[in-house]
Write a structure and sequence with these properties.
Layout lengths: L7 H9 L7 H15 L4 H9 L6 H8 L6 H10 L7 H11 L1
Helix pairs in contact: 1-3, 2-4, 3-4, 3-5, 5-6
């Protein structure tokens, strides 16, 4: 019930509390389970989680969260892609294409 209506900024704050970068993808996966039980996960949630994640774990977080966004992902991939530099964007784009 505490996660009901969780905004992207709330998810970002929760992800910032996970200090060890290797734990961030698993934390994201646990949080997404709770979020989708209570409501909807959006690409904005994914982007917020990415902002709070260490660089080396960002693609893993996208892989864990993006498949749960549903049809909104096709229209709003740019929200997630803008969180990555030009070097990482092609790999992230491939992850997102597999979600659509």
């Amino acid at each position: 019930e505490a996660l009901n209506g969780l905004f992207p900024s709330d998810l970002e704050q929760l992800m910032q509390e996970v200090r060890f970068s290797m734990d961030q993808p698993q934390a994201a996966e646990l949080l997404v389970g709770a979020i989708i039980e209570q409501g909807v996960l959006t690409p904005h949630h994914v982007a917020a989680a990415v902002r709070a994640t260490a660089r080396l774990s960002r693609q893993d977080v996208v892989q864990k969260l993006a498949p749960h966004c549903g049809p909104a992902m096709a229209c709003h991939q740019d929200v997630i892609l803008q969180e990555f530099d030009n070097f990482d964007q092609p790999a992230v784009r491939r992850i997102l294409q597999n979600c659509s």
